[in-house]
Amino acid sequence: MKFTINRSQFNHQIINVQRAISTKTTIPILTGIKLDLSKEGLTVTGSDVDISVQTFIPQEDVDNELQIDSTGAIVLPARFFSEIIKKLPLDQFTLEVLDNQQVAITSGHSEFKINGLDANNYPHLPEVSNTDQLQISSDILRQVIDETVFSASKEENRPILTGLHLQINQDQLLAVATDSHRLAQRIVKIQNSGDSDYNLVIPARSLKELEHSLSDNSEEIKLSISENQILFEFDNTMFYSRLLEGNYPKTDRLIPDSSTTKLEIDAKTLLASVERASLLSHASRNNVVKLVIDSGQKQVVLYGNSPEVGTVEEAVKVDQVEGEDLDISFNPDYLKAALQAFGETKIKLEFTAALHPFTLKPLNDDHSFIQLITPVRTFN
């Protein structure tokens, strides 16, 4: 196996593959990056079992400057290999597999020799049928991930909650994430050309890595789903993720269908106020901020308190207040994350009682985007 390639193009092409490689894997060969050279081009693969990424660098793309002398395959230690390629002196480098799986990497007057592994021992990628594919735009997929995944649990004691629950039918995708203290739900319209409906849970970590892998040039993404794997195809890249096993809890019943108190406010304005109120609450063990709504005075006040540091009080500018007076305490970090997902828009907050979950929705709400936060019982 021997080839020459443009160094910067190669680095750019394999960034996504490197995201899938972990130094903590218990399978030694998976700390490596697999190179498989055919007459058509170079296939590069990385995996940590949960996530696998494969990208193809075509020989016909002149920007790659890929010259193929002989085909073959090898697995190289990913960390050392990537660092070597970054430091090479010229715009091109040549890689050649020598005897005993040793590999020579040359560029100008620099030559490295590193030990490789037999590519035949590299695990096969999952088999995912593409006979019934879905298509979704990268912009919509990014939006769904941004608006929901942060609410997934980071605790492994309930593995199913560490993922994003997707329900897909012919014209709609419903995404839900919750850690049992907060919830984010997003509904988007899609065109599902197949006859199948899907109910699956994708690890939040996989979706974060997928979002990082999407370039600005990515447009349509093809999804193929099997019993325990999902495959995303885009830009000569195949991104595999395992699916979480188990039944996701029913979350519809958590979202209140009525309210006794409502606020209308600019999301960015409320975010800034909560950030200031939480400066002192973070110094306290309970990390709680209180929101006091005086409907009669049309006044809303945020309170933060740390016995060790001091207190903060801020009147919040709201567009509208209606309903019953209310004092409610909550984790400010949950509210900040929810508000950040709305960006710069007007929202409404709806409350039912001091100890019942409250919701955040866009002001022009069509029930397509809902955030829910569970309050805390006490405030010190």
UniProtKB/TrEMBL annotation:
Residues 135-250 form the DNA polymerase III beta sliding clamp central domain. InterPro entries: DNA_clamp_sf, DNA_polIII_beta, DNA_polIII_beta_C, DNA_polIII_beta_cen, DNA_polIII_beta_N. Belongs to the beta sliding clamp family. It comes from Bombilactobacillus folatiphilus. The gene is dnaN. Residues 1-126 form the DNA polymerase III beta sliding clamp N-terminal domain. Coiled coil: none annotated. This is Beta sliding clamp. Keywords: Cytoplasm, DNA replication, DNA-binding, DNA-directed DNA polymerase, Nucleotidyltransferase, Transferase. It holds the Pfam family DNA_pol3_beta. Residues 253-376 form the DNA polymerase III beta sliding clamp C-terminal domain. It is found in: Cytoplasm. GO terms for molecular function: DNA-directed DNA polymerase activity. Confers DNA tethering and processivity to DNA polymerases and other proteins. Acts as a clamp, forming a ring around DNA (a reaction catalyzed by the clamp-loading complex) which diffuses in an ATP-independent manner freely and bidirectionally along dsDNA. Initially characterized for its ability to contact the catalytic subunit of DNA polymerase III (Pol III), a complex, multichain enzyme responsible for most of the replicative synthesis in bacteria; Pol III exhibits 3'-5' exonuclease proofreading activity. PANTHER family: BETA SLIDING CLAMP (PTHR30478:SF0), DNA POLYMERASE III SUBUNIT BETA (PTHR30478). Forms a ring-shaped head-to-tail homodimer around DNA.
